[in-house]
Request: fold
Amino acid sequence: MIVVQGVPREAPGDRHTRGAVSFSLQNGQHAVLTGACNTGKTLLCLRLSGLVKTEPDEGEILLDGRPLSALTEQARAQAVSYVPSDPALLFSGAMTS
Reply:
């Protein structure tokens, strides 16, 4: 289970928060994060996946009841998948090939 509680909506390098986000996902559930540009969607996903190692200044992110900082990279990789919205990051050739 993933629990995000009171985590500020912020873009990387931007200390101006735009409120906070809270949600939970049961094991096996999927989610799509949508919203305006520079509101912290990518940063949250990068934190969940372990690609960004920083913890939020406020709120908490838990995976199976444990803070992200207490988990190994392998544990995060087994629990969380992140697919960026920019197809250029996924494919290096033409979409038709």
User: Anything to note?
Assistant: The longest helix spans residues 41-49. The two ends are 38 Å apart (CA to CA).
